[in-house]
Amino acid sequence: MTNVTKTYFPDINEYIIQLNRIWANQWLTNRGELVLELENRLKSFLKTDNIIVMNNGTIPIQIALKLLGNNGEVITTPFSYIATTSSIIWENCKPIFVDIDKDHLTIDEDKIEEAITNKTTAILATHVFGNPCNVAVIERIAQKYSLKVIYDAAHSFGVKYLGESIFNYGDVSTCSFHATKIFHTGEGGAVFCKNEELRNKLYYSHNFGHNGPSSFFGLGINAKISELQAAMGIVVLDHIDEIFNGRKDIVAFYDENIKFDKLSKMKIREGTEWNNSYYPIIFQSEKELSNVQTKLNEIGIFPRRYFYPSLNTIEFVNGKSMKISESVSSRILCLPLSHQIEDSILELISSTINNSIW
Ligand SMILES: *Cc1c(COP(=O)(O)O)cnc(C)c1O
User: Which residue, of 34, 67, 88, 132, has the fewest CB within 10 Å?
Assistant: First the structure.
């Protein structure tokens, strides 16, 4: 069976070495030695100004919205994982959808201004599949209307844009270290923020608001990650080159072997050093997609319809119609992509696609 993603499992003995450190310390959580080490190593690997590692990739979005969303309208993309939209609703803000750019699949920056009202407080956009939003235009709009910018960068581990970590853009960026993502801690995530004052708020918010054992800066929640998860992160990070290289080879294989005459691909934004996080292909019709999906399923290959349905159409979301997102959503399929897939399987995937749409 080949699934759309495959979790990277390091050699268990390498994990045990890290567990031994935890047992020696007799310290399991509350930002122990391994969490601090992981943060430092990630900061230098990613070349970001700072980082707070958390327990998943959704909580940092929620904390950022709690601090910056102010119960207002939040402009967002309909083409992302449900966590992007549900976080807005969860924080008592209102998602205002802006359709996507059909080439890059990120929020269409040219349609943002017309969605702004006097209730708008923030923009929450996703660098979908690790493809950067048009951060320069979004920044300009945000300054003009005094809006905050939060990037859901869950897919963007290792992405550079104009020579800099994508996490350094926006007021806040978040990432997910879920087991299905490129770099993982089992469950985990992180928040990135350049502004020192806001960083401090994010920091205390993730630890119940504590300012010492019996005093508080303000309202908080528990978003701390444990030493056990940090241990996994440390070991996975030791193998990050192998993970990136494996993915690059698989993407190169698909690029060379799939016939794209009747299919299209997402366009990576110019100036991006991409991370090969997903391999979406876009069919001409949903019928073609279903046909290929069925044929792949029959031979034990399970691509996934990321992202379907378009988030504006979900019942509890109840957003306005979004033509491009709904159309792309119904026709896009992510092929299996991980650090390692056998050549014979890759050949089977490519030939099944090529034979089904000709
Ligand atoms: C995975 C993902 C999240 C959620 O991350 P978790 O670590 O699973 O909480 C949020 N947004 C996007 C776009 C994602 O793909």
Answer: 67
Tell me what the mean pLDDT of segment 326-333 comes to. Answer: 98
* Rounded CA separation 312/165 (Å): 30
Q: What is the value of pTM for the model shown?
A: 0.98
Task: Confirm or reject: Cβ of 126 under 6 Å from ligand 1.
Answer: yes
Could you give the CA distance from residue 231 to residue 133 in angstroms, rounded to a whole number?
32
Residue 358 has pLDDT above 80, yes or no: no
Q: Is 176 in the pocket of ligand 1 (CB under 6 A)?
A: yes
Residue 288, pLDDT > 70, answer yes
- Clarify whether residues 227 and 245 are in a common domain: no
Residues 102 and 50 reside in one and the same domain: yes
Number of the ligand 1 atom closest to the C-alpha atom of 155: 15
CATH assignment of the domain containing 184: 3.40.640.10
Q: Give the residue-averaged pLDDT of 173-185.
A: 98
| C-alpha–C-alpha distance, residues 70 and 172, integer Å | 15
Structural domain of residue 251, as residue ranges? 240-356
C-alpha 164 – ligand 1 centre gap (Å): 22
**Pocket lining: 154 vs ligand 1, CB cutoff 6 Å:** yes
Query: What are the residue ranges of helices labelled H in the chain?
Result: 12-25, 33-46, 59-68, 82-90, 135-145, 196-205, 227-238, 240-257, 286-298, 323-331, 343-356
CA of 176 to the centre of ligand 1 (A): 5
Same domain, 121 and 9: yes
Shared-domain flag, residues 49 and 179: yes
